[in-house]
Design a protein that fits this description.
single chain, 284 residues, alpha/beta, Rossmann fold, ProC C-terminal domain-like fold, 2 domains, eight-stranded mixed sheet, 12 helices, 13% strand, binds NADP nicotinamide-adenine-dinucleotide phosphate
Length: 284
């Protein structure tokens, strides 16, 4: 799929944090745009200096200065400051600008309400492995966004991993599953490593074995084309060591607890959207 991105364009990231860094890195690596076409804005001067030193990308302390003349503006600030940022940049955006938000819980409807009439918006939920180019990003189009906008967003986020398009009604589930998902795997890694120490392994060995096992299991899942349950059954011989571990996990209802945890993240994502909706229109 060809990216409808011109090398003459300006793309500005509002908020020069972790996710903006992953994306800027991916965009430059994939040669979608060169550094003179990219800009970042942030209230933190040190972040701007970091982008200048690492990527040769110009930084602006005032959002209004950074977005001037931009064809694409990516909102990469925390949801809590989004209302203020939308209010601040709304009047400065040129009519044809595409606004892409990666903020959790901020709906396309809400953005459209706060931005000038007719603005095209796209909402994306990436995840942290985007930092290594192995992210998962899900996007949905706002009412006025076009198929060209969809192709552009796919190209941008493919530069940091896999991209899926879904209806916006699924975004809370996506936030709970892939947005928060890396934390579940880190939690599992913590437990596995701790069990390793308790059984007498040193830190480095426990880490090597845990990371190698998670990486290998993920690769098997991808390459074998089998469902996780099938693979689990293949490595669980009756009366064997894995079966002994599975018995404990089943008795402890770990599956139910895990699903409950992910549903709690989905509920929290809904609540965050509602908190955002309750911010008065154009409130700072
Ligand atoms: N990190 C993830 O795993 C992840 C996954 C999915 C989605 N997201 C979404 O991505 C967005 C960014 O997350 P992140 O992890 O990159 O956050 P982050 O590292 O905190 O980056 C946000 C940056 O924006 C700056 N900022 C604060 N107020 C600003 C303003 N008014 N104008 C311009 N910049 C401002 C912050 O400065 P200060 O630090 O000085 O406040 C910070 O440098 C969030 O909305 C989050 O929901 C993140």
């Amino acid at each position: 799929m060809n990216a409808p991105i011109s090398q003459e364009w300006i793309m500005t990231f509002v908020g020069a944090g972790n996710m903006a860094e992953a994306l800027v890195h991916g965009i430059i690596r994939a040669k979608l745009l060169s550094s003179p076409c990219l800009r970042v804005t942030d209230t933190n001067r040190r972040r701007l200096d970091h982008f200048q030193a690492t990527f040769g990308v110009t930084g602006f302390e005032r959002n209004a200065d950074g977005i001037r003349g931009a064809q694409v503006v990516v909102l990469a600030v925390k949801p809590q400051v989004m209302a203020g940022v939308l209010k601040e940049i709304g009047a400065q955006l040129a009519p044809g600008t595409l606004v892409v938000s990666i903020a959790a819980g901020v709906s396309t409807h809400r953005m459209q309400q706060q931005l000038p009439a007719g603005m095209r918006v796209v909402r994306v939920m990436p995840n942290m492995p985007a930092l290594t180019g192995a992210g998962v990003s899900v996007y949905c189009l706002g009412k006025r966004a076009s198929e060209d906008d969809a192709r552009l967003v796919e190209s941008l986020f493919q530069s940091v991993g896999v991209v899926v398009r879904l209806d916006e009604k699924h975004l809370d589930a996506v936030t709970a599953l892939s947005g928060s998902g890396p934390a579940y795997v880190f939690f599992l890694a913590e437990f596995m490593m701790q069990a390793g120490y308790e059984m007498g392994l040193d830190h480095a060995t426990a880490k090597t074995l845990t990371l190698g096992t998670i990486r290998g299991a993920a690769r098997l899942l991808e390459e074998m084309g089998q469902e996780p349950e099938e693979l689990r059954q293949r490595v669980t011989s009756k009366g064997g060591t894995t079966a002994a571990a599975m018995d404990v996990l089943e008795t402890g209802r770990v599956k139910e607890i895990f699903i409950k945890a992910i549903r709690a993240a989905q509920k929290r994502s809904r609540e965050l959207s509602e908190e955002m909706v309750n911010v008065p229109r154009n409130a700072g």
